[in-house]
Every structure is written in C-alpha cells, then in structure tokens.
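fwd from M.: "can u put these together and see what the complex looks like"

so here's what she sent:
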Amino acid sequence: MGLLAFFRRTPATASLAKERLRIIVAQERTNRDGPDYLPLLRRELFEVIKKYVNVDPEAIQVTLEKEEGHDVLELSVALPGKG
Amino acid sequence: MTLETESTVQPLAGQEENAVRPAPQSVGNPTPSITGASKLTEIIVVTSGKGGVGKTTTSASLACGLAQRGKKVAVIDFDIGLRNLDLIMGCERRVVYDFVNVINGDCTLKQALIKDKRIETLYILAASQTRDKDALHAEGVRRVFDELIADGFDYIICDSPAGIEKGAHLAMYYADRAIVVVNPEVSSVRDSDRILGLLASKTARAEKGESKVKEHLLLTRYSPRRVANGEMMSVDDVKEILGVDVIGVIPESQDVLSASNAGTPVILNAESDVAQAYEDAVRRLLGEEVPLRFLQEPKRGFFARMFGG
Ligand SMILES: Nc1ncnc2c1ncn2[C@@H]1O[C@H](COP(=O)(O)OP(=O)(O)OP(=O)(O)O)[C@@H](O)[C@H]1O
Ligand SMILES: [Mg+2]
C-alpha cells in the first residue's frame, strides 16, 4: 500500500461482503433446493412470532439439513436481548 | 421438526468423469467427419446472471485459445437484440446472416458462420438484432447444434446474455459444461449462485437425469492490490461461498478495453497479463493442471509504491 493510499484508506469491507454472502447464499439454497413451501412457511412463522415478540425477519432462520435417510428442518429464532 | 423429502443437493462442480455426449438425434444420419472417427463435441455456456461482468470478453478469448490449439470452435452470440460478440471478435462488418436466420431457414448454417481471419478453425455465429423474444427456441437451437456436431466441431461456446430469462435459459439449456463468470463483488456472487441453481435444474441434462453440467467459476476484474488491502473478496472467499472450482482468475486491466476497441480478442495480446490468464484457463479447460497466477500484486518500484493508488 502506498503512503497516499494509507492516508485515504478505503475500509477493508471484503470480510463483511463474504459474511453477508455466506448467509444469504445458504438461505437461498435452502429455499430453492428444499420444498416449495419453505419461503411461505418462513413468512407465516414470522407473522406468528411477531404477535408475541418483536423480532426482525433476519432473526428467523429456516434451514434444511440432510441426514441419513431423512432431512431435518431446523428453525431458529433469535430473540431480542433484554434492555 | 423432521420432514421426509427428496431434496436435491447443490452439486459441486467438476468432480465427475468426462461425460460422453449422446449421438445427435438430428433428422437423417449426421454426416460422419472426414476422419471417419466419431468426434465428441462439447457445448460450453459462458454465463453469469449479472450483466457486464465479462461473459463476452471471456467467450471470445476462450474460443480463440481453443482454436489456436487446433480445435474446431464455433462461438455463438445468444444475446438476441443486443449483438456484441461480433464487435469483440472484430467481424461486425462481415455479418450477413445471424443465428435466428439459420433457425428460421432464411439461410444455411454455412452461410451464417463467419470464418475468423486470424485463426483457421474458428467460426462466429452472430446474434440477431430482432426484438422478437420468441425468435430463439429450444428446437431451433438443437437443430443448429446438431448440424455443428455433424460438421465435426470440437467446441460450441455459447455467449449467454445477462439475466435469467429466455436467452440465458436457452444458452445454458444444452450445455455439457458451464463457465460462470463472476466479479468479486456481492451482487455478482449472489447472481452466480442463482445461475448454479438453474444449471442444476433447468438444463436438458438435469431434466433427463443425465450426469450434471460441469460447472466452473471464472473470476474476472480481479484486483490483487484491493484483495491485499481487504477491500475486495479473494478467489478463496468466492470459491468457498459458491463451492465450485475455479478455472481461471483474470486480472482487472486496461488491456481489455484496448482489445475491444481494436476488435482483437484480448487473449491475442500475448504481452498482457489478461491474455496469459485466459491462456491458463484454456489449458485447464483442456484438462491440464495449471497453477493460478496473477493473484499477487506485481512488485512495484519505490515511487510507484509511495504514490501509486
Ligand atoms: N479483466 C477485465 N479488466 C477490465 N475490464 C474488463 C475486464 N473484463 C471485462 N471488462 C470490461 O467490462 C465490460 C463488460 O464486459 P463484457 O461485455 O465482456 O461483459 P458481459 O458479461 O458480456 O456483458 P453483458 O451482460 O452486457 O453481455 C466491458 O467494458 C469490458 O471491457
Ligand atoms: Mg455480453
């Protein structure tokens, strides 16, 4: 890196890009490789959970894991911290 | 919650043995090639989802590189309505008939194929400028491919349009192999993943349950300096996210613009790093093991390091 570049340094955002892509690609693969109802299921779950807790759509993860002989649908809901 | 489903798994590319093409099912017997030996034709789609990432640049250079090694190559522009490959190949004034003319029977394939003036075994088929989206259809594309196969072509390179609509779908539909062109940038990587999904489900191979389309990534506009500074995702980052092997890494370079200005595919500019990177990709395509190059910033002098961007 040159001196001038050092003083007007562009932030190192590549790792941010990678992390965001890792998550969205995994989610989109689950949607397209899994059964058609997954996106709808995710949406409806969000609507139900929102009645009780104020969560963000991104707090809800629906993943489909392959296991021997069957698939496991995993739901994870990150609840907002107290405060 | 447990659900029993028969879901498919995202394929990892390039791990299979070479698939053998079924004999063309054209009307009548395909004319055997002059040697009499039944040749295999490989259909390669150069695709991306996102626009402007370097598909046409890549199609032109790979086609040239393969033809320079004595392979008989046809490179076809699938970007109906937005003809561009002819300009990059430098044959825009020689286009008389196009892909759609052949499909509609306005001319023969021979009349429409433009023979490259630099490389003996290279032919270009230009895209139509028509605005009719239905001008191209699977049956017509198959007929043209079968004729090229019967004619003894080794490679058919399909330069896909951007997007995931009809043109992109038809460009990939009959492919044996796919080169997914990707820039190390979020939207391009995400679009590439969508394309990988389509390759695994919406191609003739997928529909017939044949062996999968072989997939490769080709990273372009790569800037080792920005990668080193943490401003740009690295080859390994992109490879890890998409889970597909990398067939080439092409550096960002002004040589690409100069090449397109001149109508000379950049691979023919032997001095350029870009040309050498494309040469490496061609060799990998032919099965050679070639280590990746141009991943590191070139060593620069003191002043360049002090004042360079
Ligand atoms: N390695 C590179 N370095 C610098 N510029 C590049 C490189 N590769 C491609 N470009 C530039 O990017 C632009 C788009 O390239 P190209 O036309 O090959 O993309 P494309 O994917 O075919 O676009 P479209 O989706 O419109 O068909 C062009 O201006 C080209 O000169
Ligand atoms: Mg193009």
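replying to her w this: Chain B touches chain A at residues 1-5, 7-10, 185-186, 189-190, 193-194, 197, 201, 226-234, 237, 240-242, 304-309 (CB under 8 Å).
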